[in-house]
Amino acid sequence: MHKEKQQQAFARLLDIMDTLRAQCPWDKKQTFDTLRCNTIEEAFELTDAIQRHDMSGIKEELGDVLLHIVFYSLMAEEQKAFDITDVCNAICDKLIYRHPHIYGDVHADTPEDVKQNWEKLKLKEKGGKKRVLSGVPDALPALIKAQRIQEKAHSVGFDWDNKEEVWQKVNEEIGEFTEEIKKGNKDNIEAEFGDIIFSLVNLARHYDINPENALERTNKKFISRFNYVEEKTLQQGKNLKDMTLDEMDQLWNEAKKNKIQ
Q1: How far does CA 110 lie from the centroid of its chain?
Q2: What do you get for the CA distance between the two ends of the chain, in Å?
Q3: 201's torsion region: left (phi>0), alpha (psi -120 to 50) or beta?
Q4: 157, 132 contact by CB (below 8 A)
Q5: What is the share, in percent, of the chain residues with pLDDT greater than 90?
Q6: What DSSP assignment string belongs to 133-190?
Q7: What pLDDT was estimated at residue 88?
Q8: pTM of the model
Q9: What is the rounded distance in angstroms from the CA atom of residue 257 to the CA atom of residue 219?
Q10: How many CA atoms lie within 13 A of 130 on its CB side?
Q11: Cβ-based neighbour number of residue 2 at 10 Å
């Protein structure tokens, strides 16, 4: 009965999308290109709801993302390229192929084993012509892209043996950065700073830390504490521009003491 309700709900969405595409002036006008930016926005709204652990928000944003998947599939069907059935079957086939430890005779006892098998199978696809890093989208935000690049390099054994070696690399990059600061070449300074960030992302991976999540936690913490400083300043009838750095720092430490996160 549960599966039947799921199928009915999905069929209802398909029917509604057919109607909107045929009758709604806005929906009739959309193309892959016009919808693309909206899709990016919906994905970010979903991740924001996930970070807030807002289950109601997650449900709503998942619906918006699902709508876009159906929308793209319908437009492709109009062009006789593929339809939602092809999309579903393609991902089903991919999941079965990339989980031989479930649907075949391959053994994978840990999540790391599964990831290793997954990357190896991806390399075998398309006649073995796919390159290790070819699956990293160019449009990914730089921090996430760095993480994916390093994960893929790790999958073929291109990685440090232990955390101590990664720490050495971080310190090496910091040293090179400080040397370029002394020389004053802005382009080299930027390049070396990028190397520091890249090495820190690598360090995070070796400690099983998601760097994107870690940085976002710090972003939110800073916003909360800065808002506290600003609110306390306004309560004193002042503006932040009227405050000295010492005065603002005192309020900042007060926010830390109050464990504002």
Answers
A1: 23
A2: 44
A3: alpha
A4: no
A5: 75
A6: TTTS-TTS-HHHHHHHHHHHHHHTT-S-SSHHHHHHHHHHHHHHHHHHHHHT-HHHHH
A7: 97
A8: 0.70
A9: 18
A10: 15
A11: 6
